[in-house]
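HUMAN: Mind sharing a backbone?

ASSISTANT:
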Amino acid sequence: MAESISNMTLRDKLNEAERVMRELMDHLDNGFIPKARSLSRALQEHGNDVTLISDTTVRQQAAEIIDSNRYSEKLYRRVGELLVAIDEDVASITESKI
């Protein structure tokens, strides 16, 4: 993700967008969603008796979910930037052919 989008060819942008989208999907499927479900299950299992799960455990798991969400947002922004750049390149190509 270090390379500047403006220095990429259209092919590079397409490849990078595909790679980042795959990384985002993998992260959501194998990181974010399991963490969120784990916390949800832990809270549901203890129902009304909140003394069975410590505040520290809840805070730690919530912090992991927040960090995971920040990473998801970073990938999502990168994909968006790439797609905008791809759209601009394609529009430029199609306009020059008219």
Observations:
- The chain has a mean pLDDT of 91.
- Helices lie at 10-46, 55-96.
- The longest helix spans residues 55-96.
